[in-house]
Amino acid sequence: MNKLRKDFLWGGATAANQFEGAYNIDGKGLTINDVELGASHGQTRQILDPIINSKYYPSHEAVDFYHHYKEDIKLMAEMGFKSFRMSISWARIFPNGDDAIPNEAGLEFYDKVFDELRKYKIEPVVTLHHFELPLNLVKKYGAWRSRKLVDLAVRYAKLVMNRYKNKVKYWMTFNEINSLFISDQPWHMAGIIYKKGENKADTMLQAAHHQLLASALTVIEGKKINPNFKIGCMLLYPCTYAATCRPEDQICARNKLLSTYYFGDVQVRGRYTNTCTSYINQIQGTFKTEPGDDAILAAGVVDFIGFSYYFSAIEGIEKIDQAEGNLSTGGRNPYLKLTDWGWQTDPIGLRNSLNALYDRYQKPLFIVENGLGAKDKINSDGTINDDYRISYLRDHIKAMIDAVDIDNVDLIGYETWGPIDLISAGTGEMRKRYGFIYVDRNDNGQGSFKRIPKASFYWYKQVIASNGNRL
């Protein structure tokens, strides 16, 4: 028997912009995702605004959870889910982000979702900001460049936390907040397209400071609403090894993680640390603060650390072939295999990541994204044999359990990414499937939306039922 807690939160994770669809239904406003075109054969997504109806925008329909939520939640319950990570779309609550009055239809939708989850005793884990900034806030204020967004974001958070204070216990403020520094797509993370002549480092640091203030204030206000709330941060964790035992390579590996620990340090320790200063100096940037900011950051520290883990990479002073990863790249490790999309598979890296984060912060951890994007095939009898996904998840869960059993890491739960097939964040594709449940949609937005359980559906059901003892 493993040492996972009896109330371990097994489940799966989604994001509204990749899952809900219904982009302009019941009063929802446009988000930054709603003006992103779908990719063709894995190419980078494009921003096209105003919307052209003849073009395909993946988030407009996604996999239509908006109209299938009862069916989808029932399937999750059949697997035995203890939790379900989802996000609230800011623009479904405040269509323009700064409206005087919230959209009641949007609030009612999430009421119905939470009630359905409660019906099956599934704990919602809610992300407030999952790359879903209302488009109007980009056009009116310049997105997260502006401090105005801090007030607006906290106003939105207070409203939904008050509304659902008896239905939601676990909250996370910003999804993969450090991806603003890691990725070269600031539009996707913060609604930012750099202007000609703009100092990118300064803009990036300023936007980050505003998001960190919004996160801290959300924690402060959330605890006033319900002291029993558990409010966490969420990091993209890019597990990184030194390419060789050369001391210089160790420094390269450390530097790769500076941008991740920058956000972890502020949200967990409540201040800009030497790690933060080191990163600021490295990119030669500056940002403005106001009196009282330090006190806000100090008071608004998180209760737990959520993080995503998909791959690892290496870094060194010599030139290294690069491999793709989750919104980032890293050095190619010859000891690791690649997925169909070129991501390096490293189950032991999950154990290493859990130890690195727990050793550094001594806060409960929550794996809120982990999974395999692959091309699934429907057999002639209608079944889907995704043994490759089962193998991937089994190996990662084994490593996770080792971190708890052997290393004594405090772990809250494990959410696989995309328990039901959804739109890829990086490319807008459907053929890159993660789910235990197949959704009949293709890269052109065609299909019936029919849901079909895969072989992994039944495997994960036994994993949950045994609390990870039957893999």
What does this molecule look like?
The protein is an alpha/beta fold. The chain has one domain: TIM Barrel, CATH 3.20.20.80. The protein is about 40% helix and about 15% strand. It is built from 15 helices and 16 strands. Strands 1-2-3-4-5-7-13-14 form an eight-stranded parallel β-barrel, surrounded by four helices. A hairpin with a 5-residue loop joins β11 and β12. It is globular. The model has no long low-confidence stretch (mean pLDDT about 95).
Helix and strand arrangement:
Blueprint: E1 9-13, H1 16-19, H2 65-79, E2 83-87, H3 90-93, H4 104-119, E3 123-129, H5 135-141, H6 148-163, E4 170-174, H7 179-182, H8 186-190, H9 200-225, E5 230-236, E6 239-242, H10 247-269, H11 274-283, H12 293-299, E7 304-308, E8 312-315, E9 322-324, E10 329-331, E11 337-338, E12 344-345, H13 347-361, E13 365-369, H14 387-405, E14 411-417, E15 437-439, E16 451-453, H15 455-465
Parallel strand pairs: 1-2, 1-14, 2-3, 3-4, 4-5, 5-7, 6-8, 7-13, 13-14
Antiparallel strand pairs: 9-10, 11-12, 15-16
